[in-house]
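As described in the Methods, two query proteins were run sequentially through the folding procedure within a single session, without resetting any intermediate state between them. The first query and its resulting structure tokens are shown here.
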Amino acid sequence: MRGIQKMIEQEDYCMDILTQNLAIQKSLGSLSKLVLENHIRTHIADALSSGSKKDKEKAIEELLNLYELTNVRSN
């Protein structure tokens, strides 16, 4: 982010700024996917297989909240 801010301050070529911005967005998307996959395979799986109804409900609520966030961002 600081790199893009510096590019803007230096009035770099717009296409260079956009290209860098898109590269960062793609990297963040990949990171988000990895973190989500890890969370589902560990925390969510454990919560859903536990005997605790509270843990199961929390896991489902987390996934629903994430679904809401992704739908808001994509609209």
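Immediately afterward, the second query was submitted; its sequence and tokens are:
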Amino acid sequence: MRFSAAMVVMLFALSCCSQTVPSTQGKALDGTEIGFPKQNGKPLILMIGFSHKSSGDFDQWNKQLLSGYLSDSHVDYYELTDLAGVPSFITAMILHGMRRAIHGTEQSHFVPFYTDEDGWKKAVNYSASDNTYLVVADSAGKIVWQTHGVPSEEKIAELKSSVEKLTELKQ
């Protein structure tokens, strides 16, 4: 059976959009309690890393685009890092280093998570620990767009477009 390009895109869109953000409770680096999904009507942008090696992609995305969403009141934006399975004495050192490296109000947008690693990996179509994964979801947690790896002009345009569509739906 041969698949046309349109069929492949449609199948990917259906699989992407059937995913939801795992229900997660945690604390941002500044101590703020955070929960997903928020159900507050705002689009949700999440950048997720599963290893220290993904931090290079985090930096590139922040330089290209995402830091602009930190102060946007129409969007909820968070960076998540997977600390599931890390021994507590190492977790304390990692968190200390993160707090030193991430300054000011950015700490309220950085959320380590310790549970449901498999759920997060499934939601982002995990393929490699070195990758950074980006997700745009509606306020109910339904994923409407996702990508992984380094930013490109195409990925940035797609992310902005998906956020704009969700923002327009709200109005």
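The chain has five helices and seven strands. We note this only descriptively and draw no conclusion about the first query from it.
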